[in-house]
Write a structure and sequence with these properties.
The protein is an all-alpha fold and 127 residues long. It has a domain of 75 residues. Helix content is 47%, strand content 0%. α1 runs antiparallel to α3. Its main location: membrane. Belongs to the SecG family.
Amino acid sequence: MQFFANLVLVVQLLSAIAIIVLVLVQHGKGADMGASFGSGASGSLFGATGSANFLSRATAFAATLFFGCTLGLAFLSNGRPVTSSGTDNVLDRAPIVAPAASGAAAIPGAIVAPAVPASIAASGAAN
């Protein structure tokens, strides 16, 4: 499982670097021929922008790969420990119940509150 998480992390890092490089290589809309005529709307000079070129499609693919790896890493590192039996269920994560500190009989399954120090109890009773 750790090997798979490392593999997904490497793919995520490579896709992030690819996104950075592809975005920096592409030129904006203002860098076309229309910008040299003083017009800010270069796309309207030669018609509407057509279908996506190779760089924009590669950027979209790298972004999809990046988000997929991010979801995969979130799923793989959810922080739940796997027990020795290989399964993870609610009963394995149940809190451990301490026996009653006083002479009273403990109720099975009850969670005992921690004892309050005498100095805190005395200051609370004085107010």
